[in-house]
């Protein structure tokens, strides 16, 4: 009874002003329909910081909140995260799209003036604004069959990132859609947005003719990851009716640009502080134990005294009981959700993988410190590497990039890391997503392999495992893509693509030759024609020794052999590169690659190129269809079928027309 009286007395002592807290400046409207407008945002002059003006469109029912005086609709404002959620646009390819069709549009999120582009419809705000498309909250997504989606720097054709979506066909010509929980490249693809952008171009290209009933499903958009995680099933329901409009709205998360608001005098509440996040953005937050708006005077209030005044003892007890019950329910729900995410993220398997990786101490592998598997997306914590990725260094604007010497060192370091995880540790690990953006560089340009989120370990008594296909189109082993069989040779193929990327400075996921060949197919074709200089980076030709370049090109060709058993191991690749870098160019026996045992022999005539003084009529591959069929433009899938048929194997649902080369 005494506790109850104390509670009642304490609540009665609170000033009435504590019952509600303002979110804006005095005499300023802070609502638009059902949307709240907290300061530093505002609807009228004097009610917002410069650049944070919003418009309330009262002509709609209910009223719509717009960013600036543009037409981007605001659906959520988060002071804590310093983000704004707006409705962007999904671009849809015309229903009669052909293999040469391209849909191209521009989005500008940086200011308040609408503009038009010759490439398509554009919308947005004035340049020099405070907002960028968040690189950590959004993904580039494309849906449809046999399409390539690209995110481009606004105003030119420089690709920032991209992904491809394919739909294999059965022997009866029916499109096969075995879509899993992720956009892995079958009917849908999804990739992160690498940069914080104020404006960008998106492009959707048709790679190959597809069934007419799926033409209307070709979409490309940048969208909030959390939104897409909840609607992907509906979007990818190919039997569901589609909207007739060429565009649809999708939510996009915008970050406040660092330094635009800052903390110099912006944090006005007594109980607020200036917070700098890992992306060098400054924002105001309420101190621990306080909640509210840190940008206004007395905006942060003590959570412990946030209860309102009540005149009824029964009501007060009910409120207290309700709070305790609600807290308990939330805790149980949170625990259940963690268990769900743990199971969804293959928690036990990833735990074993992380336990192994965290024990690795290798100069060419990023140190893994730990993981969190109880979130919707598993989080892996790595050491910080300061000098960016190989992708960023290779594909910078301008004529010159990494020197040829540095490229060789990076290739050797990457090979050393892959050889180590493939064969030198007690439980071999397959990385499964080797690409230039997963190779980090330190200040001395030493390669550090990172991002083991897709990795799988292979039991020591097995040569491979059957698993769901995961990786990045352009780098992905085609044999693994079509059969689901993952082996250490899958990493070898991806490394071969890295070598081609280092030689050519072309992007494997976006490159398309004049004959619509992918980078790998075009590289092999030119190598066969002894015309490799056509695709080489001019800087490589200028700085490198021609014989050494040929050796590296031949090594890349062997790594991308269609048959996994005809590829070298990463250990053999490492030894070959070591020898090349050290200048050891002594002819090896015709039956092996440096140091290879007889049972793992790689035919040396598969590494012959004009100018070496040896027989060079043509390149030899155990799977001859790789070179033989280039002239007749056969698909990789057909080559896989021919190879398996020759060996008496069967691949179900893989006799369609999906092509990486057309």
UniProtKB/TrEMBL annotation:
Residues 301-581 form the Protein kinase domain. It is found in: Membrane. It is a single-pass type I membrane protein. Gene3D superfamilies: Phosphorylase Kinase, domain 1 (3.30.200.20), Transferase(Phosphotransferase) domain 1 (1.10.510.10). The keyword Signal applies. GO terms for cellular component: plasma membrane. Residues 1-19 form the signal peptide. GO terms for biological process: cell surface receptor signaling pathway. Pfam families: GUB_WAK_bind (PF13947), PK_Tyr_Ser-Thr (PF07714). Keywords: ATP-binding, Disulfide bond, Glycoprotein, Nucleotide-binding, Signal. InterPro entries: Kinase-like_dom_sf (IPR011009), Prot_kinase_dom (IPR000719), Ser-Thr/Tyr_kinase_cat_dom (IPR001245), Ser/Thr_kinase_AS (IPR008271), WAK-like (IPR045274), WAK_GUB (IPR025287). GO terms for molecular function: ATP binding; polysaccharide binding; protein serine/threonine kinase activity. This is Protein kinase domain-containing protein. It comes from Eragrostis curvula (weeping love grass).
């Amino acid at each position: 009874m005494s506790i109850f009286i104390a509670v009642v007395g304490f609540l009665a002592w609170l000033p009435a002003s504590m019952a509600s807290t303002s979110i804006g400046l005095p005499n300023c409207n802070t609502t638009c329909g059902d949307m709240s407008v907290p300061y530093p945002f505002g609807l009228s002059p004097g009610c917002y910081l410069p650049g944070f003006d919003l418009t309330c469109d009262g002509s709609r029912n209910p009223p719509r909140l717009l960013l600036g005086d543009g037409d981007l609709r605001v659906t959520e404002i988060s002071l804590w995260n310093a983000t704004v959620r707006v409705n962007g646009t999904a671009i849809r390819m015309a229903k009669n799209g052909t293999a040469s069709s391209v849909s191209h549009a521009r989005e500008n999120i940086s200011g308040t003036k609408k503009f038009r582009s010759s490439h398509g419809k554009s919308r947005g705000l004035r340049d020099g604004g405070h907002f960028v498309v968040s690189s950590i909250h959004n993904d580039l997504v494309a849906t449809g069959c046999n399409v390539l989606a690209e995110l481009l720097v606004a105003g030119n054709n420089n690709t920032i990132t991209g992904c491809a979506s394919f739909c294999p066909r059965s022997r009866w010509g029916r499109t096969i859609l075995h879509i899993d929980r992720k956009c892995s490249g079958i009917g849908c693809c999804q990739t992160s947005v690498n940069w914080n952008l104020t404006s960008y171009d998106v492009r959707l290209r048709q790679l190959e003719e597809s069934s007419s009933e799926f033409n209307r499903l070709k979409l490309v958009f940048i969208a909030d990851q959390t939104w897409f995680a909840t609607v992907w099933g509906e979007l990818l329901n190919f039997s569901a009716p589609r909207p007739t409009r060429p565009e649809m709205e999708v939510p996009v998360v915008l970050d406040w640009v660092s330094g635009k608001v800052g903390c110099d005098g912006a944090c006005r509440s007594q109980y607020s502080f200036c917070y700098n996040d890992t992306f060098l953005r400054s924002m105001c937050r309420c101190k621990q134990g306080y909640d509210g708006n840190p940008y206004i005077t007395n905006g942060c209030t003590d959570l412990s005294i946030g209860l309102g005044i009540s005149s009824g003892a029964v009501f007060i007890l009910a409120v207290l009981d309700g709070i305790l019950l609600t807290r308990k329910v939330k805790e149980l729900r949170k625990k259940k959700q963690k268990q769900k995410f743990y199971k969804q993220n293959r928690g036990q398997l990833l735990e074993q993988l992380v336990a192994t990786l965290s024990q690795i101490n290798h100069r060419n592998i990023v140190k893994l410190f730990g993981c969190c598997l109880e979130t919707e997306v598993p989080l892996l914590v790595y050491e910080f590497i300061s000098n960016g990725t190989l992708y960023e260094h290779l594909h910078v604007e301008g004529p010159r990039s990494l020197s040829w010497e540095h490229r060789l060192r990076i290739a050797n370091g990457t090979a050393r890391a892959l050889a180590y995880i493939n064969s030198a540790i007690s439980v071999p690990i397959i990385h499964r997503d080797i690409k230039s953006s997963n190779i980090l560089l330190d200040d001395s340009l030493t390669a550090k392999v990172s991002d083991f989120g897709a990795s799988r370990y292979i039991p020591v008594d097995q040569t491979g495992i059957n698993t769901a296909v995961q990786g990045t189109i352009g780098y992905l082993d085609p044999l693994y893509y079509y059969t689901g069989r993952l082996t250490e040779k899958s990493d070898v193929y991806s490394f071969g693509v890295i070598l081609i990327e280092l030689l050519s400075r072309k992007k494997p996921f976006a490159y398309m030759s004049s004959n619509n060949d992918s980078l790998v197919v075009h590289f092999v074709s030119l190598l066969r024609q002894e015309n490799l200089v056509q695709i080489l980076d001019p800087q490589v030709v200028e700085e490198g020794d021609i014989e050494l370049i040929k050796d590296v090109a031949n090594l890349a060709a062997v790594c991308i052999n269609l048959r996994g058993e005809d590829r070298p191991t990463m250990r053999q690749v490492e030894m070959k590169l070591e020898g090349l870098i050290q200048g050891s160019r002594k002819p090896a026996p015709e039956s092996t690659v440096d140091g290879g045992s007889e049972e793992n022999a790689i035919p040396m005539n598969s590494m012959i190129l004009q100018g070496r003084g040896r027989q060079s009529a043509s390149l030899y591959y155990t799977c001859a269809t790789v070179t033989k069929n280039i002239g007749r433009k056969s698909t990789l899938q057909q080559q896989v079928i021919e190879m398996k048929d020759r060996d008496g194997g069967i691949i179900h649902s893989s006799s369609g027309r999906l092509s990486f080369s057309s």
